[in-house]
Design goal:
By secondary structure, the chain is an alpha+beta fold. The protein has two domains: about 300 residues, no CATH class; about 60 residues, Beta Barrel (OB fold (Dihydrolipoamide Acetyltransferase, E2P)). It starts with 10 loop residues before the first helix and ends with a strand.
Length: about 500
């Protein structure tokens, strides 16, 4: 497809049209139905001062840290120093359950897609924006009802105790990852929104210190520090100008570590109360033998049986030795580990021998999704179970229902990932269509009977190697030439030079 064919159509509009089409092709709903919109009109904010069971924690220095452009704020956090170098971490999670009822048109739409879909030119939110960015979002300077996950963390980063309850909270600062990370790392001044709230800077430093300790503790127990290259499109007006690498940073790690801990604490809380749970599991790796072979090529011996601790040791050594190609090694490992999936688990204490509830990559046994109820359906399901547990009512779902939901959520998430990937490739094809014939340095990211894939080093773009792929393997560096792009289908084809 030639470059000229897209000069008349604005890039953003073109990518939105493609995204809309691909959503439908993958069986997802790109638009809210008239029934959803009518229901939305009738929704009123929750009356927060319900009963005596709700605590008032509005005086704590809560803040949100998210992407610059996020408007659906699912969580707030705050830390409190305790004697003996312990820290109490509190995570507030948006109360979506009070406003989105099972069997409603809004719930039916959310249950169909099961997740918000983030494409290069448009977000397809799981819940209508009046909910996700307003009524159920923990917005700046607003009082909101929330679910609180309270955790006591030791100086070594070990979780010593946790509980869940409901409370009123107030968001004192809406912060963004890049500016908070730059301040924590000492490369930029304190963000104005942070400086404006007395005592918040000290609180964030305490959160950061605690999160780092939790991270080290998990790694010592075999959590994998996998890093892959994520890219996001940068528009100038409505035209696509480049793809930018989305880097990991200290601020993202605070939230990541707190959310992993909160997800575990929530799953355990429900199990201990005798309620069933929807778990997130990565079972024993699908192709451990190939991971062993890759490690062997790099002079490292892994055991024949899957072992996340020795895999983490290997990854840490590779990151130190070859930081440049580390994300590509991680990508290969992630593909070989196999995808995560949802699984239902009955209530009550589950014996440790049950590997079904284990998340291999995170080295945690109890893990459910609970911290993003505006963006993910499993989190909303978990919240309904929590609500029942806190008010001592019968579980809102039977195990059979949870089993069916687990399968539905796994399949829909896979469809959503494919939509995001395909539209991302269309965006990349759009950027490259005027550069046919140019040569690039690349690294091989996949080599299988169905195709060989390379990622460019200059731009975070992956494409297919359609000629010269004989004898090429994952991790090889190649000089390639761009031979063809197809924006509609998201194809980018290279040949070996």
């Amino acid at each position: 497809m030639s470059h000229s064919s897209h000069t008349n159509e604005q890039h953003r509009a073109l990518l939105q049209r493609i995204a809309h089409r691909v959503m439908l092709e993958r069986g997802l709903l790109p638009d809210f139905s008239p029934a959803v919109l009518a229901e939305l009109e009738r929704i009123r904010p929750t009356e927060a001062a319900q009963a005596e069971t709700v605590r008032d924690l509005r005086s704590l220095l809560w803040c949100s840290i998210d992407n610059d452009d996020s408007r659906d704020l699912d969580q707030l956090s705050v830390a409190q120093a305790l004697p003996g170098n312990k820290v109490k971490i509190l995570v507030a999670i948006a109360d979506v359950e009070s406003l989105v009822k099972p069997g409603s048109a809004i719930d039916d739409h959310a249950q169909h897609n099961t997740t918000s879909v983030y494409t290069a030119a448009q977000i397809f939110p799981m819940l209508p924006e009046k909910l996700s960015t307003d009524l159920t979002s923990l917005n700046y300077s607003e009082d909101r009802l929330a679910f609180i996950v309270e955790m006591t963390v030791g100086a070594d980063g070990a979780l010593q105790a946790s509980t869940v309850y409901r409370a009123l909270v107030h968001n004192y600062a809406r912060l963004a990852y890049p500016s908070v990370a730059a301040w924590l790392e000492g490369t930029a001044p304190m963000p104005a929104a942070l400086a404006a709230v007395e005592g918040l800077a000290d609180n964030l430093r305490l959160q950061d210190k605690s999160a780092q300790a939790m991270h080290r503790f998990r790694q010592a127990h075999g959590a994998l520090s996998l890093e892959t290259i994520q890219s996001r499109p940068i528009f100038v007006g409505d035209m696509l100008s480049t793809l930018e690498e989305d880097e990991k940073n200290r601020a993202k790690e605070i939230i990541e570590d707190f959310m992993i801990a909160a997800n575990g604490a929530t799953a355990r809380f429900l199990s201990e109360q005798g309620y069933p749970t929807l778990r997130r599991v990565v079972r024993t790796p699908k192709r451990w033998d190939r991971i062993v072979a890759i490690a062997k090529e790099k002079g490292f011996r892994l055991s024949d049986d899957p072992d996340s601790k020795s895999l983490e040791t290997f990854l840490v050594k590779q990151k130190a030795a070859k930081p440049q190609s580390y994300p590509d090694l991680c990508l290969a490992v992630i593909k070989l580990l196999g995808p995560g999936e949802y699984a239902a688990q009955p209530g009550g204490e589950v014996p440790n021998s049950l590997a079904a509830g284990r998340h291999f990559g995170l080295a945690v046994k109890d893990y459910g999704h609970s911290t993003a109820p505006n963006r993910r359906y499993p989190d909303l399901v978990t919240q309904r179970l929590l609500s029942a547990a806190l008010s001592r009512q019968q579980a809102s779902y039977q195990l059979e229902e949870l089993d069916a939901l687990a399968q539905l959520c796994t399949e829909a998430e896979d469809a959503a990932n494919k939509v995001e990937r395909q539209v991302g490739k269309s965006a990349a094809a759009l950027l490259l269509e005027s550069r046919i014939g140019e040569q690039f340095d690349s690294i091989v990211t996949g080599a299988a009977p169905k195709g060989t894939w390379v990622r460019l080093l200059e731009l975070p773009v992956e494409g297919k190697l359609v000629a010269g792929f004989q004898g090429v393997d994952v991790g090889d560096h190649l000089r390639v030439q761009l031979v063809e792009t197809d924006v509609e289908q998201g194809y980018i084809d290279f040949k070996k030079v």
